[in-house]
Write a structure and sequence with these properties.
By secondary structure, the chain is α/β, with parallel strands linked by helices. The chain has a single domain, classed as Nucleoside phosphorylase domain (Rossmann fold, 3-Layer(aba) Sandwich). The protein has 7 helices and 9 strands. The protein has a 5-stranded mixed barrel with strand order 5-8-7-6-9. β6 (130-138), α4 and β7 form a beta-alpha-beta unit. α1 crosses α3 (99-107) and α4 crosses α7 (248-275). It binds hypoxanthine (HPA). Hypoxanthine binds at residues 117-119, 193-194, 210-212, 235-236, 238, 246, 251.
Length: 276
């Protein structure tokens, strides 16, 4: 038997997700590294589905530590928090990396917030700072829209990516905090950090931020016409910027330290979105 198209798999997962939640969600938040603690005070869960229970989601790399989708209500807005992102560097195809976001969108989310932890190339950004993504450089050498063509009911794959990161949503975010910085995010496959020479190259190319996620999810979301807000938490200065070596532990720790402040900001942003 031939494998169903990834979008058909996502439709199947969306049907199961909606059944399990009882009603369609409105907004999805993809929680990146450093963001897990940010959801603690956001609201009481009103629904939860383990990724294990949804078709097409990859098995967890550590047994018992799979991802999950948690539903919370912010006023009358139903917000789906997606925890447990998978990455290209785990050996997954682009279609698998974007499966959770496609599932959320096909279940009803017309707005998606895509978050990540990243290195700062722009020296104006400090560790612990949140930066809105204004645009991206997809340096993964792949696209979730490659492969067999989508069923005819879907938009064509030659998607325009002008304003991929919604100016309207960025303006709403600046309504919460007028000092919110914006930057260009370079998405690389990883999992190693960059060399200082690569960071110099990325700076010349116009990047302010660097990480290993987000870009494929944004492309998949725009293909399905969802509105995207991208937000990066700076966990470290990029390679070669401080003279210090980069360490994964430091990146994780910076995320943990920023958890509460990030959560407050995320909560305020969701409230503003619900009111808009
Ligand atoms: N580079 C790439 N990805 C990252 C970094 C970085 O410096 N920090 C957190 N994710």
């Amino acid at each position: 038997m031939t494998e169903p198209h990834p979008l058909i798999r996502a439709e199947q997962a969306a049907t199961t997700l909606t059944e399990r939640l009882g009603a369609p969600p409105d907004v999805a938040v993809v929680l990146g590294s450093g963001w897990a603690d940010s959801i603690v005070g956001l609201g009481e869960p009103v629904g939860e589905v383990a990724f294990d229970d949804l078709p097409g989601f990859p098995p967890p790399s550590v047994p018992g530590h799979g991802g999950k989708a948690t539903l919370i209500d912010i006023d009358s807005m139903r917000v789906l928090l997606l925890q447990g992102r998978v990455h290209l560097y785990e050996g997954h195809a682009a279609s698998v990396v974007v499966h959770p976001i496609r599932t959320a969108i096909l279940a009803g989310c017309r707005t998606v917030m895509i978050t990540n932890g990243c290195g700062a190339i722009n020296p104006a950004y400090g560790v612990g700072q949140l930066v809105l993504i204004a645009d991206h450089l997809n340096l993964t050498a792949t696209s979730p829209l490659g492969g067999p063509s989508a069923p005819e009911s879907y938009p064509i794959r030659f998607r325009d990516l002008t304003d991929a990161y919604s100016p309207r949503l960025r303006a709403i975010a600046r309504g919460v905090d007028p000092t919110f910085a914006e930057g260009v995010y370079a998405g690389l496959p990883g999992p190693h950090f960059e060399t200082p020479a690569e960071i110099s190259m990325l700076r010349t190319m116009g990047a302010d931020l660097v990480g290993m996620s987000t870009v494929l999810e944004t492309i998949a979301a725009r293909h399905l016409d969802a509105e995207v807000l991208g937000m990066s938490l700076v966990t470290n200065a990029a390679a070669g910027m401080t003279g210090e070596a980069l360490s994964h532990d430091e990146v994780v720790e910076a995320g943990r330290d920023a958890g509460q402040a990030v959560g407050a900001r995320l909560g305020a942003l969701l409230e503003q979105l619900a009111a808009s």
